[in-house]
Each structure stands twice: as structure tokens, then as C-alpha cells.
What we know:
Blueprint: H1 13-25, H2 31-39, H3 48-51, E1 60-63, E2 66-68, H4 71-82, E3 91-95, H5 101-107, E4 112-117, H6 120-132, E5 138-142, E6 155-160, H7 169-173, E7 175-187, E8 190-198, E9 203-211
Parallel strand pairs: 3-4, 3-6, 4-5, 6-7
Antiparallel strand pairs: 1-2, 7-8, 8-9
Helix pairs in contact: 1-2
The structure holds S-adenosyl-L-homocysteine (SAH).
S-adenosyl-L-homocysteine is lined by residues 62, 66-69, 95-96, 98-99, 101-102, 116-119, 122, 144-146, 161-162, 214, 216-218.
Amino acid sequence: MIEGMQGIGMTxxxxxxxxxxxxxEQGIGSLKVLDVMRNTPRHxxxxxxxxxxxxxxxxxxxxxxxTISQPYIVAKMTELLLESTTxxxxxxxxxxxxxxxxxxxLAQLVDHVYSVERIAPLQKKAKDHLWxxxxxxxxxxxxDGGWGWPEHAPYDGILVAAAPPEIxxxxxxxxxxxxVMVIPIGSGGDQRLQRVTRxxxxxxxxxxEPVLFVPFLSGRK
Length: 221
Ligand code: SAH
């Protein structure tokens, strides 16, 4: 438990257990994912004014016009990524660090997370939160994630937390054979979650459920 975060009930095991129960009802079946989400404080990733709502099933503002992803989406994307293999994923590239909550979940389930964010102050806060949680197997890059992070490629998994109109070519190039990318594609109210698997001969695409993400923007801020 992190100092100063006790009290007022929002960290109570019951509040978190309710979130886990809801995730199970929504179809999340991976016990590994559920366990990690049960044990990761979500409220420390947001401003105090919103912390009491941290375990609700909703996206919430984190500043700079961005949102922390809703618990269901974090769980679903993580589960889709992990399903791809029976072993532990070694290297995962995350595009859109945001407040760092998804990063913290991934860091507990894979060997190393490489996380790219275009808004510097958001990424700075995320770093501080993960440091507080003693999650050290994460490297951060302030850049436009459309370029991926070629220096550490190829990746076994890529998770994209903002929606581009189409799959960025550079990200496809940075996947290992057998690797998986989970990414929302589309614009405005017309987005779909997709899972791309790289095979010996090319890429396989699965179109999954409709989603609502912030847009994938180019350039750095
Ligand atoms: N998983 C994060 C999601 C944050 S919202 C969380 O739960 O906090 C999506 C994030 O993607 C935002 O922080 C936004 O700045 C970032 N983003 C959008 N386009 C990007 C790009 N081209 N490169 C890197 N980050 C991007």
C-alpha cells in the first residue's frame, strides 16, 4: 500500500473486488489479468478530485484532453495480447502511455514494456506512478508513436491506446513473427478493436468489438 492513499474507502478491497466481479461478468476470463488488476491501485493514476471514481467502469479525464482507459478495455486488450502465446511475452511496445495505468498492468505480466507517449508531462506523471509502485521493467520514450521504437524492435506484442484511421506501417514492421498487435482503428464514433498477428508469410487480421478511443495524433508535444 502506498503511503497517504489509505482511508476514505476508495482503496477498500470491496471497491476493487466489485470492479473484478464486473470484469468477469463482462467476459474477462484470464485469471492472471484479473489478479493483476485486483492488486494494482487504479486511483493513484488520477487527480484526487476523481480518485473516488477510479474503479467505476468508465474512462475518466487525466488532463491534456486525454482519458484513462476504462477498466474493461484495459483488461480486454491485455487479455487479447496474452492469449497470443502460452509463454510469457518478452518485449511489449505500448503506444500512448497516458497516465500509466495500462503500462502498470502490462509491466506485471510481461518481461519488459517499452512505452511511447507524445505528451511529455503526461508521461512524466506516469513514470512517477510506476516508480512509486516499484515497477522498473519499463522504458519510456517521448515521441510520436507512429514511428514505434525501432531500436528495441522486434516486439512480441504491441498495444496501441489511441485510434489511428489505419494501422501504422512502422508498427507492422516492428512485430516478431508470431507477434500480436491490439489496436483500435477508425475515427470518431466508428472505431473497432483489431488484433493483428504476424505470420511467416504476412499478417492476419481479426476485427473485434466496437470501441471508443481518443484519436491517434502525430507529432510531439
Ligand atoms: N492507456 C492510457 C491511455 C491514455 S489515452 C491510460 O489509460 O492512461 C491515449 C494516449 O495516447 C494519450 O495519452 C495520447 O496523448 C496518446 N497518443 C495519441 N496519439 C499518440 C501518438 N501518435 N504517439 C504516442 N502517443 C499518442
